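User: Here's a structure from my thesis project, written as structure tokens. My advisor, Dr. K., wants to see whether a designed sequence matches the one we expressed. Can you design one independently, without my sequence as a hint?
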């Protein structure tokens, strides 16, 4: 691992990975062993590696899977998540989008935006609603260092201050929002894949068919080539932002929030984006 100047065997790698996850949880005061954690799992390597590591570290962690109804991709990933939950003997909650609104491909027929933009909003809405209804203290997602640096890079390119303010491994609990954390924010995609491989975790390797051509993929490629030339630049870019820039932005952080007139969920507009989508789809 050139960026850490380390070479480890399998067992020491697993130990190193789990220690690093635990120290990230403590450093950012994400949660403790007394908290009930809801891990948002997609069937991919990151979220399953996270769930595995949290359970092994002794945290109370259950899973939440949102079935987006994206053909074979969703079918396969749901089966993988279900059998993983059985293997680790933890509860898995499932939201069927088809029952709540409609599947992502059906919504795509009536919404001209890229699928990822409304899909992301839908996932955040149900994660929050489920965690609150089921009385979990915190939601954990498998976002990794590559995801975080790609988003950071894109927000810096356009100096999107509002997004930069919200880019932090912890989003505090407020006004109907359950606390959200990213315990894998310091681990790369490759490091998560290696942890999954060493622990014989089966995960979905196919990409979601809607992911193709997204700008975050091209930023990831760009940052990967930078990392190859200068190992450690990705983690430096991210951690120095958190250390030097985020505290300045966070000073005047204020969220104007009320509740949606239709469903009562927290929303920055009178009617939340999910209720607007429901109206569009006709449910
Ligand atoms: Fe949803 Fe886009 Fe992710 Fe597919 S790639 S699951 S559409 S956010
Ligand atoms: Zn609503």
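Assistant: Designed independently from the structure alone:
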């Amino acid at each position: 691992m050139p960026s850490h100047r380390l070479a480890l065997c399998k067992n020491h790698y697993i130990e190193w990975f789990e220690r690093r996850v635990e120290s990230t949880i403590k450093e950012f005061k994400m949660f403790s062993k007394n908290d009930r954690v809801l891990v948002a799992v997609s069937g991919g390597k990151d979220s399953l590696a996270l769930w595995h590591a949290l359970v092994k570290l002794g945290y109370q962690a259950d899973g939440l899977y949102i079935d987006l109804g994206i053909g074979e991709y969703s079918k396969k990933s749901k089966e993988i998540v279900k059998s993983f939950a059985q293997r680790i003997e933890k509860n898995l909650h499932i939201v069927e989008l088809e029952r709540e609104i409609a599947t992502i491909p059906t919504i795509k027929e009536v919404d001209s935006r890229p699928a990822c933009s409304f899909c992301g909003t839908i996932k955040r809405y149900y994660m929050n609603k489920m965690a609150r209804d089921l009385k979990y203290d915190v939601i954990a997602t498998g976002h990794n260092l590559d995801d975080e640096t790609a988003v950071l890079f894109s927000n810096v390119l356009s100096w999107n201050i509002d997004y930069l303010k919200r880019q932090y491994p912890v989003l505090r609990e407020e006004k109907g929002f359950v606390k959200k954390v990213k315990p894998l924010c310091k681990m790369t995609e490759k490091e998560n894949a290696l942890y999954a491989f060493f622990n014989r975790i089966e995960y979905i390797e196919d990409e979601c068919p809607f992911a193709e051509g997204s700008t975050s993929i091209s930023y990831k490629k760009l940052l990967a080539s930078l990392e190859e030339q200068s190992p450690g630049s990705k983690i430096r870019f991210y951690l120095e932002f958190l250390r030097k820039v985020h505290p300045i932005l966070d000073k005047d952080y204020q969220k104007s929030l009320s509740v949606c007139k239709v469903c009562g969920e927290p929303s920055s507009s009178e009617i939340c984006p999910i209720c607007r989508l429901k109206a569009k789809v006709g449910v």
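When you compare it with your expressed construct, this may help: The longest helix spans residues 115-133.
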